[in-house]
Amino acid sequence: MFDQLGGLIDSYAKAVRENNNATITDLDALISQLREASVIRNVLCHGSWRTPDQVGASLPHFVNRKMMKFDTKIDVAFLQDVQRHTTKLISIVVSTVTHMGWQFPGTGGLGRPIG
User: Fold this and answer.
1) E strand or H helix at 33, and its extent?
2) Are the C-beta atoms of 27 and 13 separated by less than 8 Å?
C-alpha cells in the first residue's frame, strides 16, 4: 500500500530469483519492462497536464529526479497502448506468482496464501 513501485519491482525480482519453483524463462527482460512501465506510470500520475492540441495529444510537464524531461505527446492511442502493455505485464507477474504455488495477494485464488 505504501511502497514505491521501484522498490516493489526489486522485491518481486528478488523473490522470484530466490524461489526454486519459479518457471519464468527471462526474468531480466520482464524486470526491464516493469521498470520502463514505471517511468510511464510516473508521468501519467505525476505529470502536469497541458491542454490537448488539435489532434488530442497533450505534452505532460514531467521531470524526474535525474532531471530528465519527458518529451512525448500523449494521446488516446498512446494511453490505450499503455493499458494493453500494462495488462500484459500484470498477467505475467500474476502467473509467475501462481506458478510458484502462491496465491496472488488479494485474489482468493489457487495456491498458498502469502503472509
Assistant:
1) helix 27-46
2) yes
